[in-house]
Design a protein that fits this description.
Elements: E1 8-12, E2 16-21, H1 32-43, E3 49-54, H2 65-68, H3 73-92, E4 96-101, E5 104-106, H4 108-115, E6 118-121, E7 126-128, H5 142-150, H6 152-161, E8 164-166, H7 167-173, E9 178-179, H8 183-191, H9 195-206, H10 211-228, H11 230-238
Parallel strand pairs: 2-3, 3-4, 4-6, 5-7, 6-9
Antiparallel strand pairs: 1-2, 7-8
Helix pairs in contact: 1-3, 3-4, 4-5, 5-6, 9-10
């Protein structure tokens, strides 16, 4: 990669931060430095929506195997922890995060997409967890999120076989939210909604507190939003 080009590119529109994995010659494989830059890009914005995409014909090949090949055990653990921090940053971001997946998503690329709020694929997208073929597995939170998203049976099938699934199969198993020619349009669709409400919905959906605590928080936030939008609600009622 040329020294003057970052592996992560940021472009801020009015309501959407576009974060591009920008290493197309390596199918956007991620080094430790790129992971750190990605974490900062996703966390360091007040835009209500973050759109995560890959440059070139792939979404993301996951971890850079040139890096992994040189790691000893402790360094490999640190690299896995780094990837987990990035996935957690995506999941915990105040912004709604949309992963636009065009072309192959492999290994860590799938794991980062799993942390997004919406995974939107083009018809050309494909997905695989091929680590098992190298004697590895997805350690950027994949063993936690994959069964949560698609169910234990589908998750075990993908992770134990390393097989590749196309966009339609990914949609059927719930791995992606939609299949469309223009995933960016979905990010823009979300950004048309009220920013505070987007943050509130994400926070409530991601809340893992006991049910009674979640319900109390839900009512408190709902009350605040009703007060804030009272005029708009009245106008809609009277129209």
């Amino acid at each position: 990669m040329p020294a003057n080009r970052s592996a992560i590119r940021i472009r801020d529109a009015e309501s959407v931060r576009v974060v591009t994995l920008d290493r197309p010659e390596r199918r956007n494989a991620l080094t430790p430095a790129a992971l750190d830059a990605l974490e900062a890009a996703v966390s360091g914005t007040d835009r209500p929506v973050v759109y995560l995409r890959g440059a070139g014909p792939a979404f993301c090949a996951g971890a850079d195997l040139d890096v992994v090949a040189d790691l000893d055990g402790p360094a490999a653990e640190e690299f896995a922890e780094r990837g987990q921090r990035v996935a957690n940053a995506i999941e915990d971001a105040e912004s709604a995060v949309v992963a636009g997946i065009d072309g192959p998503a492999r290994g860590g690329g799938v794991e980062l997409a799993l942390a997004a709020d919406l995974r939107v694929a083009t018809p050309e997208a494909t997905f695989a967890e091929p680590g098992v073929k190298l004697g590895l597995f997805g350690a950027w939170g994949g063993t936690v999120r994959l069964p949560r998203v698609v169910g234990e049976g589908e998750a075990l099938d993908l992770a134990l076989s390393g097989r590749t699934v196309d966009a339609d199969s990914a949609l059927r198993m719930g791995l992606v939210s939609r299949v469309t020619e223009d995933p960016r349009a979905v990010a823009d669709e979300l950004a048309d909604n009220d920013a505070e409400t987007l943050r509130a919905v994400k926070a409530r959906m991601r809340d893992d507190a006991p049910a009674e605590v979640q319900e109390r928080r839900e009512t408190e936030v709902f009350g605040r939003l009703v007060e804030r939008h009272a005029d708009a609600i009245a106008d809609r009622r009277d129209s």
